[in-house]
Amino acid sequence: MIDVRQLRTLRALADHGTVSAAAEALYLTPSAVSQQLAVLSKSTGCELLERRGRNVVLTEAARVLVGHADAVFAQLERAQSELRAISPAPMTVRIAGFPTAVMAVIAPAMKALREAHEEWRFEIADTESEESVAHLIDGTVDVAVVMAAPNRPLLGDPRIRILPLLEEVYVAAVPAGHRLAAAERIGLADLVEEPFVLAAEGLSCHDQVTAICADAGFQPRGRYRATDFSAALALIANGFGVTLLPTLGVPPLMPEGVVLVPLKEDWPRRVSLIAVRTGAEYPEVVTALAEAAAKLVR
């Protein structure tokens, strides 16, 4: 008989590449991981690991089993969703999202749910999209609002189901005295020689802006780094470059010294998605998020 816990251990090894890393992810000792995999190998009658030097790699049988494991996990999620729908126990909503999504979408959506279900509990985390998806996979988060961006392989993971949420247009933010500040609209090509205020490399906002510029045929000259939009706008207000802002990145009160200029191009968009584990259903949470997002684009 195949044990689900052993399947999770095999999946962790497939994800993390080494027994030590899998053990850390599962909060087990390496010896416990090795023991579980040995028992799984015996119960399936197949060799699951092949030693190469100091490391191990999955055999063909192990890779086949990982695919079936994902299907098993999805079916368990479906079962949990059906039980959750008929259970009288208060629900705990564990949700994560990138900062502007938390501010503009998640917070008002969870407020609406709290007012409708006073007995529910809420756990809300402000995390980067890739981290949010990783938490979905490891089961510490149930719903995430994530940003579609280049180089985000976890969004294609078969254990994750993606639902559309929101599309935002971009505008250029320039200093008030800038040569482009008085323009009705500007093209991305107008920004080729400008110094950019960019988010740190590896962050979704950085990847989005650099991808937009690459599609327009240039690489932004990222001279200044800012971890959030307010810091970026402060730099721009003081003349330290330009940037591209999505709709949710525009504050209610713009700092003095910053001018927003619409783009001629309509295609640069920031796409936000709802992510859940495959098989899981959180209809009221998804509806609340969709209603909060709809209010932003009216």
TrEMBL record:
InterPro entries on file: LysR_HTH_N, LysR_subst-bd, WH-like_DNA-bd_sf, WH_DNA-bd_sf
UniProtKB keywords: DNA-binding, Transcription, Transcription regulation
Pfam families named in the record: HTH_1 (PF00126), LysR_substrate (PF03466)
Superkingdom in the source lineage: Bacteria
Gene3D superfamilies named among the record's database cross-references: Periplasmic binding protein-like II (3.40.190.10), Winged helix-like DNA-binding domain superfamily/Winged helix DNA-binding domain (1.10.10.10)
PANTHER family in the record: LYSR SUBSTRATE-BINDING, TRANSCRIPTIONAL DUAL REGULATOR HCAR-RELATED
Name assigned to this protein: Transcriptional regulator, LysR family
Organism of provenance: Catenulispora acidiphila (strain DSM 44928 / JCM 14897 / NBRC 102108 / NRRL B-24433 / ID139908)
